[in-house]
């Protein structure tokens, strides 16, 4: 880098010598600097993409920036603002602060500079600082800067933690080194020695807020590398705090200070290196300071970092598993540092409790001799307790749940150091298995304690099959969390439902959950339902085999073992039937009942399905899905109960009508009876009260002097979507017209409920993705869509032309590749042929499918439109124009070819623009 500085000086000197004035030389000087910057960045990028280290890349870019700023300073001070008094040059000091001060700079990062001034600024110093900034801006660099004296730095640091943090990592660039040393000494004396506790509290509070903004879980499938939980900022925060409290300059000094062991320091460095590699690749790949590992970028980075497909996991899933394991390690290091800080009384206790989970403390009696309570947290009496009795590795977590105490980080650290003691002997130990099962079935803090058990690695060692899915990402847009986090959240959902902590679900399970005969079958089935993800074989079948092997170890009877295995094998079945089949068709219920076979299994599967969907992500279990599942449960209960049910179909319809009647108190009995007769039984069973009220208002307001036509818009805030309600005269191409109008408006349909009234009206509810953040903007957009839809339904727009006129749109789904599949089945319905189409979702897909079905002279009797992230699964119950099923093999082949072609043509268009597509996303 020194050679670069000398070379730049020579080029700048030549440019200034050839120009009549310094101002005339400026364009060429900037060109020379830009060429040096671009060349240096190209070298850094090439080295990184050839297998180089991330930190080496970041340090190279920081060194490059150092030389660039020094060259700019020499140019300004020698040619632009020449100091009349040579002593003036010693009166300006340039300091790198913040991230740049650490000497590691990501490709898209800001340049943070402090122009450190003597007690009184000079006009020369102001002019030089300004000129340097102008050159940096000409180079299109993002610069954060401040000009302050030492006294100003101190006064600002006392009231602003951000400024205090930037000065922690101040680094001398050029100027008066003595003035810089004075800054450090004053900062240490006036700020760091007196405000440690305040600073630690502020930084941990800031971390909580930052993580909440980026996503509270470190296992979100699109993590933020810099700001997310377990990201680089967490490592930075640890070092800032440690540097502040332990008075060290370099991270390695933390070992000598006793904060970290050599092994933990090595872990810190490995985490830092990995995260810097990911961040630098991400910045170079996107050409900007992008910090979010989006679905689009994940496969590209997996390729860049050299990951390969292996053992049932795609390269992108292996890369992301590595990422989440590193995030977990960062969390472990956070716990170690916080425990040490608390021991030094350098940290407020309340912050610790927020970081390590909410526990409800219970009375402590007869604490076992191997355990103690430190600072209201459960600890061990040293690591020797695990060597003395390895069962203590399980007993520790069981006891934390029993006492309602959070676990002390020293205890968690001890578990991590003794994981090798969780071996085959301990896994076979009856007492260890009893304690684990009691923890799983506890009504106390099961989810919180199991999560700590997982983060230490103990859960994955005690149940090795669980260890295989730790930090495993599912590369799809449906699941929000890693597999292990999803399983723990599912257990948490069940525990909360049992305790009544989820009132929105109480109507669903109030009559069912208390009647389940065997809680341990339900809890273990839920813990294991996705445990075989990432294997070559179907995860439901492989999971069944895991259950068959594990249950006897945990003391389950043969019948209980078979029930757990059945639940795991069929855990997706109820969700698929509810969302993709016509539940009002008796054949659907008969087929489903044949799989379930008993009322007890039906109850177990119903509750497991609710918890599974609830744990996928926020608001995924919405009112529509819940209503469908509840209807499927009731209909199947009738069949399995021999024609009897706790609440039969006729009573449920009557109750649904009565609920609406009570809400429409201003209607007369005659009005209501006339209105109620317009709906078939399926409507009353499927629709919730808010939708029934909305439909009643819309249908009653229809004009009698012209054909009915309504396109109304509302916001579904629970699902973050826009809801279109369409009422029109029913006809064969109506659904295709609605879908086409939405496609032409740039609307992506993610769900639909379709009904026909007794007087021949279609009553369709279409759920669409949002575009805007603010409700007002979204409602205006919805109004435009409704207006366009009205015009399309009146035939004033040629939909196919409007769709062709739209520019091709890109979306998150473009990062995925899913093999399309068309299934045609005549056994699923007594009167219809069922066509199930699955493939990569996109704008206009439903229109293309329904349009193709109409062109094939098929009548869509009912449609079930669902989207699982990037995967669309649309099911159509169809008849031919004579009202018959489609039995002809040749005609079925034509249907299949036409529908597959829709995906094939779209794939060709996408491939031309997206060379980084990846293999098939796993099934949900």
Strand content: 5-15%
The biggest beta sheet, please?
4 strands, mixed
Continuous helix count = 41
CATH topology of the largest domain: cca-adding enzyme, domain 2
Number of strands: 14
Provide mean pLDDT, rounded.
Answer: 86
Catalytic activity: [protein-PII]-uridylyl-L-tyrosine + H2O = [protein-PII]-L-tyrosine + UMP + H(+); [protein-PII]-L-tyrosine + UTP = [protein-PII]-uridylyl-L-tyrosine + diphosphate
InterPro entries: ACT-like_dom_sf (IPR045865), ACT_dom (IPR002912), HD/PDEase_dom (IPR003607), HD_domain (IPR006674), NT_sf (IPR043519), PII_UdlTrfase/GS_AdlTrfase (IPR013546), Polymerase_NTP_transf_dom (IPR002934), UTase/UR (IPR010043)
Domain HD: 483-605
Family: Belongs to the GlnD family.
Topology, element by element:
Blueprint: H1 2-18, H2 22-49, H3 54-80, E1 93-96, H4 98-101, E2 111-117, H5 123-138, E3 143-149, H6 150-159, H7 161-168, E4 171-174, H8 177-192, H9 196-214, H10 232-246, H11 253-256, H12 262-286, H13 297-304, H14 315-343, H15 349-355, E5 371-374, E6 377-380, H16 384-388, H17 392-403, H18 409-417, H19 424-428, H20 430-441, H21 446-456, H22 458-462, H23 464-467, H24 483-499, H25 506-509, H26 519-528, H27 539-553, H28 558-569, H29 573-580, H30 586-596, H31 599-614, H32 623-640, H33 649-663, H34 669-676, H35 681-686, H36 689-700, E7 709-716, E8 721-729, H37 734-744, E9 749-756, E10 761-769, H38 775-793, H39 799-805, E11 821-825, E12 833-840, H40 845-855, E13 858-868, E14 871-880, H41 889-913
Parallel strand pairs: 2-3
Antiparallel strand pairs: 1-2, 1-4, 5-6, 7-8, 8-10, 9-10, 11-12, 12-14, 13-14
């Amino acid at each position: 880098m020194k050679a670069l500085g000398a070379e730049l000086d020579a080029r700048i000197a030549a440019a200034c010598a050839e120009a009549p004035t310094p101002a005339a030389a400026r364009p060429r000087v900037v060109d020379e600097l830009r060429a040096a910057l671009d060349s240096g960045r190209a070298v850094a990028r090439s080295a990184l993409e050839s297998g180089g280290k991330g930190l080496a890349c970041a340090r190279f870019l920081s060194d490059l920036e150092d030389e660039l700023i020094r060259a700019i300073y020499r140019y300004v001070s020698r040619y632009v603002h020449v100091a009349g008094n040579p002593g003036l040059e010693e009166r300006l000091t340039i300091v790198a602060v913040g991230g740049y001060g650490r000497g590691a700079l990501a490709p898209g990062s800001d340049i943070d500079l402090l122009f450190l001034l003597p007690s009184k600024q000079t006009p020369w110093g102001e002019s030089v600082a300004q000129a340097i900034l102008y050159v940096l801006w000409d180079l299109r660099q993002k610069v954060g800067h401040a000009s302050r004296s030492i006294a100003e730095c101190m006064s600002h640091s006392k009231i602003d933690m951000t400024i205090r943090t930037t000065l922690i990592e101040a680094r001398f660039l050029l100027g008066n080194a003595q003035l810089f040393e004075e800054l450090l000494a004053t900062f240490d004396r006036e700020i760091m020695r007196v405000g440690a506790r305040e600073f630690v509290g502020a930084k941990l509070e800031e971390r909580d807020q930052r993580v909440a903004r980026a996503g509270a879980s470190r296992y979100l499938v699109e993590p933020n590398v810099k700001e997310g939980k377990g990201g680089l900022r967490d490592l930075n925060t640890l070092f800032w705090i440690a540097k502040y409290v332990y008075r060290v300059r370099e991270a390695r000094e933390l070992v000598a200070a006793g904060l970290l062991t050599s092994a933990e320091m090595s872990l810190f460095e490995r985490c830092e290196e990995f995260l810097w590699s990911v961040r630098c690749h991400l910045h170079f790949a996107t050409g900007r300071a992008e910090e979010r590992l989006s679905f689009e970028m994940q496969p590209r980075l997996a390729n860049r970092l050299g990951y390969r497909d292996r053992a049932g996991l795609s390269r992108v899933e292996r890369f992301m598993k590595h990422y989440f394991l590193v995030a977990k390690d960062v969390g472990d290091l956070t716990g170690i540092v916080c425990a040490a800080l608390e021991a030094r009384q350098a940290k407020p206790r309340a912050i610790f409790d927020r970081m390590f989970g909410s526990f409800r403390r219970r009375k402590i009696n007869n604490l076992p001799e191997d355990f103690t309570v430190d600072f209201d947290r459960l600890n061990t009496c040293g690591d020797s307790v695990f060597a003395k009795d390895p069962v203590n590795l399980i007993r520790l977590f069981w006891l934390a749940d029993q006492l309602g105490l959070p676990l002390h980080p020293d205890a968690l650290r001890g578990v991590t150091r003794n994981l090798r003691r969780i071996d085959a002997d301990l896994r076979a130990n009856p007492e260890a298995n009893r304690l684990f099962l009691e923890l799983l079935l506890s009504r106390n803090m099961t989810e919180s304690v199991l999560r700590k058990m997982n983060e230490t690695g103990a859960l994955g060692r005690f149940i090795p099959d669980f260890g295989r899915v730790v930090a495993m990402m599912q590369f799809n847009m449906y699941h929000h969390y890693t597999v292990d986090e999803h399983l723990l959240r599912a257990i948490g959902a069940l525990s909360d439902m049992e305790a009544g902590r989820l009132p929105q679900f109480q109507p669903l399970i109030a009559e069912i959950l208390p009647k389940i005969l065997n809680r341990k079958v339900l809890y273990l089935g839920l813990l294991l339902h996705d445990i075989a993800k990432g294997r070559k074989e179907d995860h439901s079948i492989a999971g069944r085999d895991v259950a068959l092997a594990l249950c006897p170890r945990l003391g389950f009877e043969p019948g209980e073992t078979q029930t757990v295995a059945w639940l795991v094998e069929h855990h997706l079945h109820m969700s698929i039937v509810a969302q993709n089949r016509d539940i009002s068709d008796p054949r659907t219920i008969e087929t489903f009942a044949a799989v379930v076979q008993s009322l007890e299994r039906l109850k177990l599967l119903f509750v497991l399905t609710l918890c599974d969907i609830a744990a996928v992500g926020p608001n995924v279990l919405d009112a529509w899905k819940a209503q469908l599942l509840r209807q499927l449960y009731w209909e199947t209960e009738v069949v399995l109960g021999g024609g009897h049910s706790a609440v039969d179909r006729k009573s449920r319809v009557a109750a649904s009508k009565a609920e609406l009647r009570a809400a429409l108190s201003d209607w007369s009995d005659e009005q209501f009876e006339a209105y109620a007769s317009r709906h078939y039984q399926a409507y009353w069973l499927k629709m919730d009260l808010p939708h029934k009220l909305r439909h009643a208002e819309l249908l009653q307001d229809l004009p009698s002097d012209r054909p009915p036509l309504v396109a109304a818009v509302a916001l579904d805030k629970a699902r973050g979507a826009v809801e279109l309600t369409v009422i029109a005269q029913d006809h064969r191409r109506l659904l295709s017209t609605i879908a086409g109008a939405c496609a032409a408006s740039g609307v992506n349909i993610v769900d639909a409920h379709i009904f026909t009234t007794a007087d021949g009206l279609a009553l369709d509810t279409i759920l669409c993705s949002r575009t805007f953040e603010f409700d007002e903007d979204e409602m205006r957009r919805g109004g435009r869509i409704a207006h366009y839809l009205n015009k399309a339904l009146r035939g004033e727009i040629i939909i196919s032309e409007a769709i062709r006129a739209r520019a091709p749109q890109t979306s998150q789904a473009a990062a995925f590749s899913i093999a399309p599949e068309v299934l045609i089945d005549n056994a699923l319905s007594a009167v219809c042929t069922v066509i199930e189409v699955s493939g990569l979702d996109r704008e206009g897909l439903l229109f293309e499918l329904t349009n193709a079905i109409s062109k094939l002279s098929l009548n869509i009797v009912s449609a079930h439109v669902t989207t699982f992230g990037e995967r669309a699964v649309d099911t159509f119950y169809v008849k031919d124009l004579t009202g018959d099923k489609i039995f002809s093999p040749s005609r079925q082949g034509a249907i299949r070819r036409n529908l597959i072609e829709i995906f094939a043509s779209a794939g060709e268009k996408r491939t031309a623009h997206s060379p980084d597509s990846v293999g098939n996303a796993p099934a949900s």
